[in-house]
Specification:
The protein is mainly alpha-helical and 227 residues long. The chain has two domains: 1-80, no CATH class; 87-227. Helix content is 68%, strand content 0%. The chain has 13 helices and no strands. The chain has helices at residues 4-19, 22-32, 44-52, 58-66, 70-79, 87-96, 100-109, 121-125, 130-146, 152-165, 171-187, 192-203, 208-222. The chain is globular.
Length: 227
């Protein structure tokens, strides 16, 4: 017998298909670079509205994620209870990531509040898989913006992950690294000397992707007041 959450997820997926807009679905890739073969075309505002009536619901979130539908998975990130998100769930969902929007949505909406979020930065950064590696740095970016109680040492310890992976030629990875550095610099001004050292070192690299990661940060550091 299907779980109640599976039944509810199936009903919601049917609703999403009924509301889906083929033009909006086509625009995902053409306008926003969200490449997915499993979507119906629904605005993020509509997904948030649907989620607001359901949250929090951990079991339903798991069932929605299992459907594989982009919109269902996005809603799952909104309604899940981060306190119940285990390391296994973090790794399982991360392995399912297939576009940048679901990576960032999960990291900024759910993963950054999970108890074991900090433990996933290093293993995900070590992956060769594009969206897993992006998830590492998108999560660091989200933590820099949202985890106000985190010790500075956690961010200091994460900086070498950027240095070790800045050579990655894939823009979806390097952009997340840049944004993580920017967030750390702005949210943790006391770490500016460490960020400055890292950025100046990478700016001298002979590797083009590495220089591309830090180029926007160099401009920030050299501008008036560091803004």
């Amino acid at each position: 017998m299907a779980k109640n959450s599976d039944t509810r997820a199936a009903a919601l997926v049917a609703q999403l298909h009924a509301e889906g807009d083929p033009q909006a679905r086509a625009d995902l890739g053409r306008r926003y670079g969200i490449q997915t073969d499993n979507a119906v075309g629904l605005s993020r505002a509509r997904m948030k509205t649907i989620a607001a009536a359901l949250a929090p619901d951990h079991e339903l979130a798991l069932s929605l994620w299992a459907t594989g539908l982009y919109e269902a998975r996005t809603i799952a990130t909104y309604i899940d209870d981060p306190r119940l998100v285990s390391v296994d769930q973090l790794d399982t969902w991360c392995a399912d990531f297939d576009n940048w929007a679901i990576v960032d949505g999960a990291c900024f909406t759910l993963f950054d509040k999970a108890p074991d979020a900090w433990s996933r930065l290093e293993p995900w950064a070590g992956s060769d898989r594009e969206f897993t590696k992006r998830a590492s740095f998108a999560l660091l970016w989200a933590l820099a913006l949202h985890d106000k109680d985190a010790a500075d040492s956690l961010f200091s310890d994460a900086l070498p992950l950027i240095e070790a992976n800045a050579h990655d030629p894939r823009p979806l990875v390097t952009k997340a690294q840049t944004m993580a550095l920017r967030a750390i610099l702005h949210q943790r001004p006391q770490l500016r000397p460490e960020v400055d050292d890292l950025v100046n070192r990478l700016a001298l690299s002979t590797d083009a992707p590495t220089r591309r990661v830090v180029r926007p940060i160099v401009k920030i550091l050299h501008s008036t007041g560091g803004e």
